[in-house]
Design brief:
heterodimer; A: 244 residues; mainly alpha; MetI-like fold; 13 helices; B: 356 residues; alpha+beta; 5-stranded antiparallel beta sheet; 24% helix; globular
């Protein structure tokens, strides 16, 4: 029953997809630009999540400090934010009348209706997946190996590259896959914070929403494309979600 | 190139307070029961944990001083550590493990690989270079760990329980390897062990550590002659014989001067220099030629009897000089007294043999 319930929508999507017109729709410039934008935005948000998230995960996993619980709650929060609320929150912080957005605006930096805004929205909602995965990897990594490497003359960077990263490889790939999938599917925060502007912020999910207003068949085709891209990314990352 | 280490380290209720000196070319064994602070000492010497008070100097260089704020990080200490649990890197093969120290010091990949292969070869590991760490046997893993520590030519070599994680069958080979590595290494050598016999056999000087403090220090024979603590007392009267292996058919002996000890271990080759270790409890005293399965019989005269509680330490000589530990009941029943002629016997398998 459960499996049927979960499989039914996928089956519906594939059966309602009109493959004859699929080529024409997918070849269209608007879908092509949405696909390119989706790949760009989700990739950038994975990279940003890693750059900002790794030190944070390290801090959570390896350093003892007061207020650690609070910090962990803060990191987890975007995961449970309703996406549209996340978008409003981002507007309140970085929007034209946001708490720091107004000074940023004065300096000429604006996020609404820019690709950078879409990247920020996607990163905000997806980074927690990566941070928590890396943190759990770092917790189970054997510190004694890092110590052994240090006695052999390895500096921090070498220890990170040759000992830590291989040790957390599986958690890291899991985290990247989850983060990427979340960023790729991001809709609510993006449309609220960055808007729905073709070529700038209209990623595939927004394109599906746009098409749905006028062209149901087109929306199904784009949905199938989005699903295929998500599956492909997961498969590229080792397909560990498909293995038992 | 000498080592001087004086350290006080507090960890909760535990307090380590140790002073230790070791000279270049000398092997010092730090011996103590579990929980005596040996691992803390290793970690502090390697710079993995800080010391609360004290000073560590190695070869004229100040590595740490507290208070005083001097603390050279692990990677700049040039202290080679072979950890008890080996700590080989599972993401690398054996060769990459050995080459790791060189690569970390900026040696090029090709050169590091060549030198790692030399070391693998030297330890009889030539066929293991491409193997993953979990495909190595216990003995091979130990050799890889030794090669990995030695390849960077450390000033101080720290061996933490080098023989403890090995199967009994591998002991002979592992002992030979460890004593060879110690012999060939010209810097300061420190062996950490909970096994007093191991310490006696490997070290020039023994430092006994109990509950975070040094309770005794001296050459193995000094400590054996006059143990000051109950832990050291387990070493009291341990008989040490330096000799060479002689093989006669399938029987193996250690020739010590004019006497000869039959041993049980098979994995030694003729002419090899060894130390044979006999615990006093393993020496049996009889009044007549023993007719038993015991393989080693010697006649001698009792030189002294010291009683302590229910047991007595009986010294027999002159060739070989043997110390036996027997019950007072046995002393009375056999009528043992100084000057009496007796037979002393030792089972071949009770004799522990270490390569010298």
């Amino acid at each position: 029953m459960g499996a049927l319930f979960l499989a039914l929508p996928v089956a519906g999507l594939i059966m309602r997809c009109d493959w004859r017109i699929a080529g024409a729709i997918l070849g269209g410039t608007s879908v092509r630009s949405a696909l390119r934008l989706s790949l760009l935005v989700s990739s950038l948000s994975v990279i940003l999540s890693f750059l900002f998230g790794f030190p944070l995960a390290w801090y959570l996993a390896r350093v003892r400090f007061r207020g650690k619980r609070l910090l962990r709650i803060l990191v987890t929060l975007p995961m449970v934010f309703p996406p549209v609320v996340a978008g409003v929150a981002l507007l309140a912080a970085l929007g034209p009348r946001g708490i720091i957005g107004s000074s940023l605006g004065a300096a000429g930096i604006r996020f609404p209706f820019t690709t950078a805004g879409a990247v920020i929205a996607a990163t905000f909602v997806s980074a927690p997946f990566l941070i928590l995965s890396i943190e759990s990897g770092l917790r189970s990594a054997d510190v004694r190996l890092e110590q052994a490497a240090a006695t052999l003359g390895a500096n921090r960077w070498t220890v990170l590259r040759r000992i830590v990263l291989p040790a957390i490889r599986s958690s890291l790939l899991n985290g990247i896959a989850l983060t990427w999938a979340r960023a790729l599917g991001e809709f609510g925060a993006t449309i609220t914070f960055a808007g729905n502007l073709e070529g700038r912020t209209r990623t595939l999910p927004l394109a599906v929403f746009q098409a749905l207003q006028t062209d149901y068949t087109g929306a199904v085709v784009i949905s199938v494309l989005l699903l295929a891209v998500a599956l492909l990314l997961l498969a590229l990352l080792g397909g560990r979600f498909f293995a038992s | 190139m000498n080592l001087f280490a004086r350290m006080e380290i507090r960890r909760g209720d535990f307090e380590l307070d140790v002073e230790l000196r070791a000279a270049e070319g000398e092997t010092v064994a730090l011996v103590g029961p579990n929980g005596s602070g040996k691992s803390t000492f290793v970690a502090a010497l390697a710079g993995l944990i800080g010391i609360d008070r004290g000073e560590v100097r190695l070869g004229g260089e100040l590595l740490e001083r507290s208070p005083g704020g001097v603390r050279v990080p692990s990677r700049k200490r040039n202290v080679g550590v072979v950890f008890q649990e080996r700590r080989l890197f599972p993401s690398m093969n054996a060769r990459e493990n050995v080459a790791f120290g060189l690569r970390s010091r900026g040696v090029g990949a090709k050169e590091a690989r060549r030198r790692a292969d030399d070391w693998l070869d030297r330890f009889g590991l030539a066929p293991c270079g491409d193997r993953r760490v979990d495909e190595l046997s216990g003995g091979e893993a130990q050799r890889v760990a030794l090669a990995r520590a030695l390849i960077v030519e450390p000033t101080l070599l720290l061996l933490d329980e080098p023989l403890s994680a090995l199967d009994v069958e591998l002991r002979g080979a592992a002992r030979r390897l460890v004593s060879r590595a110690l012999r060939e290494f010209s810097g300061v050598r420190i062996v950490i062990t909970h096994d007093p016999l191991e310490a006696f056999a490997l070290a020039d000087r023994v430092v006994i550590l109990e509950e975070g403090r040094v309770t005794q220090e001296g050459t193995p024979s000094e400590v054996a002659r006059r143990p000051v603590s109950s832990f050291a007392a387990s070493l009291a009267g341990v008989n040490l014989f330096k000799g060479t292996i002689r093989v006669d058919g399938d029987r193996r002996f250690v020739d010590v001067g004019e006497t000869s000890l039959r041993i049980g271990c098979a994995d030694f080759s003729p002419g090899e220099s060894v130390v044979a270790v006999v615990k006093p409890q393993a020496v049996v005293i009889a009044l007549d030629v023993p007719r038993s399965s015991l393989r080693n019989h010697f006649t001698g005269r009792i030189e002294s009897i010291e009683s302590h509680g229910g047991t007595a330490t009986v010294r027999i000589g002159p060739h070989p000089a043997l110390t036996a530990e027997v019950t007072m009941t046995a002393v009375e029943e056999l009528g043992l007294r100084e000057g009496k002629e007796v037979w002393a016997s030792v089972k071949a398998i009770e004799i522990e043999v270490y390569p010298a």
